[in-house]
Amino acid sequence: xxxxxxxxxxxxxxxxxxxxxxxxxxxxxxxxxxxxxxxxxxxxxxxxxxxxxxxxxxxxxxxxxxxxxxxxxxxxxxxxxxxxxxxxxxxxxxxxxxxxxxxxxxxxxxxxxxxxxxxxxxxxxxxxxxxxxxxxxxxxxxxxxxxxxxxxxxxxxxxxxxxxxxxxxxxxxxxxxxxxxxxxxxxxxxxxxxxxxxxxxxxxxxxxxxxxxxxxxxxxxxxxxxxxxxxxxxxxxxxxxxxxxxxxxxxxxxxxxxxxxxxxxxxxxxxxxxxxxxxxxxxxxxxxxxxxxxxxxxxxxxxxxxxxxxxxxxxxxxxxxxxxxxxxxxxxx
Length: 333
Description:
- It is a single chain.
- By secondary structure, this protein is of the alpha/beta class.
- It has a domain at about 230-330.
- The chain has helices at about 45-55, 80-85, 100, 110-120, 125-140, 145, 155-170, 185-205, 215-220, 240-245, 250-255, 320, 325-330, and strands at about 5-15, 20-30, 35-40, 60-70, 75, 90-95, 175-180, 205-210, 225-230, 230-240, 310, 315.
- The strands form two sheets. The protein has an eight-stranded mixed β-sheet with strand order 6-7-8-3-9-10-12-11, with helices on both faces. The chain has a four-stranded antiparallel β-sheet with strand order 2-1-4-5.
- A hairpin with a 2-residue loop joins strand 9 and strand 10 (about 230-240).
- The protein is globular and about 70 Å long.
- Keywords: ATP-binding, Cell membrane, Membrane, Nucleotide-binding, Transport.
- This is Peptide/oligopeptide transport system ATP-binding protein.
- Belongs to the ABC transporter superfamily.
- One of its GO terms (biological process) is peptide transport.
């Protein structure tokens, strides 16, 4: 049984202009000890999906309209709020995208670290402070005892992100959700943080959901990849499947926009022309049809969305691939 099994999740935002279908019938699974990546353009539904798992969607205007979120055999959407609080931060934790806006600027690092430890583990303040110091040491922050008295603005961006990681692992959760954990730091610090996360997940035997734009990171660390577009998962499979045999033109476009060391230096990066669709009035057929170079008129624009397993564990929603064709391979080879 999967540790996390999200089935047909629908999350909406009710605005003055209409209902925004931010997450529209999304399903994915995460197994214990596994690193799963959610990739896609900004606004495709990655973060909203993860916030739905944590039940942190602001209501109103947001609403989880339907679906199931099964975690360790329990449907999180049916739990009372007080029961969900016991799971959030303890069994499921989240590393937010921008630590400077996630950390409280008027509270010390020690105060913020010990809050969840005292709440979920029932520790007294002194024991919780000792545990917090151990956590800071574990994530590579020197002089941990002294740094507990510091405030977030005393830390660099990389150090603040390490504090966020320490908070996320403070209760030894079964699932960690990392939302763009390396966005605000340079490349060297990115590598350090990702190796740190990988080691911690292995030590705790936890699972990790990695939300990122960085396909290089995905290729190095992820076991399985879910590609999202316009609030839906349009392709998923193992990292090897996604990178070596993409079955959706959007996936091909994402891969083509990343510089590669095995290509000539003067090779131009390919871009995906056009803009994502309006999620207030999503198109009736394939959401990617208006930007697709392989669009079949009269078919792609009226098709009903469905995921088809092309090879074991590798699914796609692209009608062209489902029909047995891969014209993008001729283009990209």
